[in-house]
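[job 4471] stage=fold_predict status=RUNNING
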Amino acid sequence: MNPVTHALLGWAIAGPGEGLSRRERAWIVAAAVAPDLDGLGLIAEIATRESREPLYWWSEYHHRLGHNLGACLLVTALAAVALRRFWPVLLVAVSFHLHLLGDLVGARGPDGYQWPIPYFLPFSSRPELTVPWQWQLNAWPNVVISVGLLAFTFWLAWRTGRSPIGLVSRRADLAFVEALRTRWPRV
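[job 4471] inference complete, writing structure tokens
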């Protein structure tokens, strides 16, 4: 799955929660995207590919550093310190794990390569999780999931008056919700 879909999945978990603060929602959405921080090595890899000593940070570390139980425990522990409430911290852990599940089933490369999930790192390098029926990153199931999550996000914004835009700007969120409600008035 792509990072936008992961973020929408995090919002699908965080958005409906009536008792969650804006900060708690932000942590839940961030946890849904956090495993892909290990993909930032792509920048260094592209920047050094023509050098005498290229860095293979993306090739070597994507789906290794952030896609595992150790990273989940780190993100969850940071959330526990920052949020100090059990329910939102539990949702942070669930959001992180849904990212891993999404990549497990829907991240096959165009060349057929499956990114294995070394789930038990740093405690053990085995087993690396894969499923034989994993679909490609650009396959129709990922498109359907993305469109479904986007539709849910719009519906939730229309219904509750909040969207993921509110994590960045309350004013922009109000304008977005107002535009939705003007286009599709409540009955």
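[job 4471] summary: The first helix runs from residue 3 to 14.
[job 4471] exit 0
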